[in-house]
Write a structure and sequence with these properties.
By secondary structure, this protein is α/β, with parallel strands linked by helices. It is built from eight helices and 13 strands. The strands form three sheets. It has a five-stranded parallel beta sheet, with helices on both faces. The protein has a five-stranded mixed beta sheet with strand order 7-8-11-9-10, sandwiched between helices. α3 packs across α4. The mean pLDDT is about 95.
Length: about 260
């Protein structure tokens, strides 16, 4: 039986991939995916056959991978971050469910570190309590639904990670999203953003919500919005964005009574 590994690469650097992801790429006959992501890992596996397509060709890519697998080829279909978070795992499984000939193909979803987690680590710990992840791209999600989710997240008191904050065709996406968040959240809500996580040019910055609205971000950035408990703390001489989990710190705890002898 041939296998399709739907592999989350994390940020794409070798040390950021899980050992399970590296094993899947080693075991596959072909590495397939969006060209940008394939280019990140192909140098690590120079003897592998490569199949890549461009942006907006996700369905064609997945069908081609299924076709290869039905012919006996094991394929690693690579995705940035996690394969099940805005990745190809769902589409491959949907297409396979409609193709009885693919019943002989095993599909293994290999998790990776998504940008919400790797970006949060750069900033500190902004997602340590309940949080949600929202993509601002309206290519596959209606704009009114994105706006509804933004409002619901603030009403629910969630910390938020925002994917796809801006593109050449949508220069005002992040500013408009922040305007919606500012309907409920204070302008000085602690926020932050990270760019090129785990890659050359990596950077991160802590700011307020009003400052985030004016930030010049791009599709290689992930933005983070705190909730009412999020704080900017100084640790080791470095500012950190932290959403407390709720533990009582020793300095805040009431004095313990001494044990009687």
């Amino acid at each position: 039986m041939s296998i399709i590994y739907v592999v989350g690469l994390g940020a794409g650097s070798r040390d950021g991939m899980t050992s399970q992801a590296q094993a899947a790429l080693t075991n596959a006959d072909v590495i397939a995916g969006y060209k940008t992501y394939v280019d990140l890992v192909s140098p690590f596996f120079p003897d592998k056959k490569i199949f890549s397509t461009g942006m907006m060709q996700e369905r064609e890519r997945c069908l081609a991978v299924l076709d290869m697998a039905k012919k006996g080829t094991s394929v690693a279909l690579v995705c940035s971050g996690d394969a099940g978070v805005y990745g190809m795992a769902s589409l491959v499984l949907e297409l396979a469910s409609k193709d009885t000939a693919s019943d002989a193909v095993e599909i293994l979803v290999v998790p990776g570190v998504t940008a919400a987690l790797s970006g949060a680590a750069l900033l500190g710990a902004p997602l340590s309590h309940d949080f949600c992840v929202i993509s601002l791209s309206n290519l596959l999600t209606p704009q009114p639904l994105i706006e509804k989710r933004l409002r619901a997240a603030t009403l629910g008191g969630f910390a938020i990670a925002l994917y796809n904050p801006r593109s050449h065709h949508r220069p005002d996406t992040l500013r408009n999203a922040c305007a919606i968040l500012l309907e409920t959240l204070p302008a000085d809500t602690p926020c932050g953003w990270a760019r090129n996580i785990g890659r050359e040019g990596e950077e991160s910055h802590i700011c307020t919500l009003s400052e985030l609205a004016e930030a010049e971000l791009d599709m290689f950035c992930t933005a983070f919005i705190g909730n009412s408990s999020t704080r900017v703390l100084l640790s080791g001489g470095t500012k950190r964005l932290v959403t407390p989990r709720g533990y009582t710190l020793e300095s805040e705890a009431p004095a313990r009574p001494e044990a009687s002898l």
